[in-house]
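Structure request: Sensor histidine kinase, Belliella kenyensis.
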Amino acid sequence: MKIQSDYKQNLSLLTHVLGWALFGLVIFILSPLSAGVERPIEFWIKQSLNFSLLIFMFYINYFYFIPKILFKNKIPLFLFINLIAGMGCILLLIAYDDWVNMQELMHKAYRPDTPYRPKPRNYYWDISQLLVFFMVIGISTSVAAVQKWQADEALRLEQKRQQIDSELNYLKAQINPHFFFNTLNNIYSLTNIDIEKSKSALLKLSRMMRYVLYETEKSNTLLSKEIDFVLDFVELMKIRLSSKVKLNISIPEKYQDSPIAPMLLLPFIENCFKHGISSQHESHIFIGIEITDQTLILTTKNSIFNTNERTPEGKDSGIGLQNTKRRLDLLYDNKYELKIDSQNQHSTYNVLLKIDLR
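Returned structure:
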């Protein structure tokens, strides 16, 4: 990272040096030489003075006036200062011309055989120099503005990345510890009834924990791993289900694998089991996944039962979904569609999620 930073600084310095060298060569050397007249040394001193003033004003504007005044929304003051600075530079050049009698020197260079007669000063060249000054100030302001925009955009992207990371870490914490504890208790109960089934359940639980620990450290995982994680979760939840729950799962066995942000689907699946199960009434849960043209379509439907808000699972029931909606906004922006319907005559909670994984 330090090598890359040093490289960028060296490249920026080289760009400034080459830019000024080209500007000075064209405006202050080649342009006067193109006239084919040998000019006095005082003229080249003036060119050097003018060039030095422009460089000085470029950087004092870049490092001080722009960040301290312009970027503080003091625009009238910024314009006034640069107008005064431009006029000051021109007056300094005029004073130099009067001091060395530049008009007479240039007359002798261009018309050596003609006697010199003083004339009123031609301010055309002074206005041209003032325009060059404002052009340099404009370039300085543009460069600083672009760099500020790039820095602000980089900061925004970094903050967005940190926000996504923090929300992902929060979501990982929302994989309810109570789920793991309850699952372990259920597996323990299974050991007295069905050893092979308990072994299979332990394997699924270990796969889930491995996914949470390692895959969520990455910005993306494979869709196949995400679906396997969901399937393991559903299989473990089945251990807790009674015969009153009708569970219907529709997930394709073959599909085109694609990258996806980890743990996007689980909150919707988990929500089905949190609110769609009753120990006293018949209930149903439907979980369907389709993958067509790299578009993931998740459909869930479940009965709605009031969850005891004092229970750990009930208390956090809405947090995971809210967090997932935020992650969808941050990660997929306009590439996803989410519809949630809980106000219907069938008393079911319906979710339709479409994500463009391309």
